[in-house]
């Protein structure tokens, strides 16, 4: 039986990054993937959705026009767009495979099951069984450490009768070859809103149905309202505080029955109500890996489980289900296995939502419990007052920054507007280094750029934005 320093289970952004990093750390690595390298992120998540997002955004500028241009005629083929999306995905997946091979990582295609855990005290490796794809049989390998990174899959509710044809999940919607005339989206969280934006741009009549009182309910309230206004202004029908009773497939579509008795017909129904964890059939129960009350694998600050030598990363552990967080988890596990003690800290963790314009957030936001005991100020700056935004005809949106009153430290930011995720990347870096208002002010920003919005919003928290009239300035 071949022995490895680390066996990584799952080839998504948690697993493949852990494998690449561990190979750089000089370890002998095996990675087991039952489907495609790149996991949800590259194959059916972040990347394919952003290809469609960027095409939908381009279509939006063709449709709504740009000052000085008169576009009389344009044409597109959705099938070609899907083919381009597949090209991007296969380029990136192929890149991951090449990198793994170049670092001498052994890649196994199949489903992994942990037969026995490593016994660190007695220096005995754990055993992992691989059910190889294409009926190639079973094989076993052993490893001194195991990193579990098996990710998540779309949640299914029996009453929603998902048939993967007319009633679909985010996995299938990325592969439909033509634009549905109408689409009902169940769930107005991040995934639901991103698809609503895409299919509305391509001409579907979109209806969103959300159980909670607002869309994007975990975001800052102002951002959620602003996004609602934008989506509604594009004729997306948004029904909140609405409970779906059941969904049934028809010959040419599906019917959504609401608890109120109302029926909604649509050619496609997208169910985007959350994700379930891929923690079954891995042998976790048998070897005694502990789960928390939400069914996530319990890990310590090193991403090690209750069993020494077994680590877990990505969607299956605590923290938000995000690709970059999954990769960060992978690096934390990898570094600790290599003997460099590193503790994870999610307090400065950014995220983006690709509606048009996009949303970005990092750290604390108004309404968060953690802010209750902190004296803070909020600064804001509008895209409409930024030269580059006007040049780009992107005047919609704003950035809000939260600074701590006592120290001037930047402790959070959120906003919506062109390239907002890139502006949030800058604030993330400042926050990573415990930066203050003065650090943002004295960082020189190239002109004209959207990034000039960052120091302005930060300074506005103390009434000192340069290009904004703020009555607070004159009270000093
Ligand atoms: C539509 C959509 C859009 C998204 N957009 C974004 C975005 O813009 N930004 C962002 O940060 N996040 C986004 N996400 C979330 C992101 O994709 C996930 O958080 C991320 O992929 C999680 O990484 P992971 O490695 O933990 O799991 P995954 O990416 O799910 O990878 C897990 C891998 O493990 C494999 N596996 C499972 N069980 C076994 C087994 N027993 N043996 C072998 N292999 C196994 C699976 O086949 C899979 O390939 C999006 C998700 C979706 C669905």
Total number of helices: 13
Structural Rg: 24 Å
Structural class: alpha/beta
Mean pLDDT across all amino acids: 96
Order of strands in the sheet with most strands = 1-2-3-4-5
Name of the top-level CATH class of the largest domain: Alpha Beta
Q: How far do the termini sit from each other?
A: 74 Å
Low-confidence stretches: none
Counted up, domains total: 3
Supply the CATH architecture of the largest domain.
3-Layer(bba) Sandwich
- CATH homologous superfamily of the largest domain - what is it? FAD/NAD(P)-binding domain
Explained architecture:
- By secondary structure, the chain is α/β, with parallel strands linked by helices.
- It has helices spanning 13-24, 39-44, 46-64, 78-102, 170-173, 190-201, 221-233, 284-287, 323-337, 387-391, 420-432, 437-441, 453-460, and strands at residues 3-9, 29-33, 106-116, 126-132, 138-148, 152-154, 167-168, 182-186, 205-209, 237-239, 244-250, 253-258, 263-266, 268-271, 275-277, 310-312, 351-353, 359-363, 376-382, 397-404, 410-417.
- The strands form five sheets. The chain has a five-stranded mixed β-barrel with strand order 1-2-3-4-5.
- Helix 1 packs parallel to helix 9.
- It is globular.
- The model has no long low-confidence stretch (mean pLDDT 96).
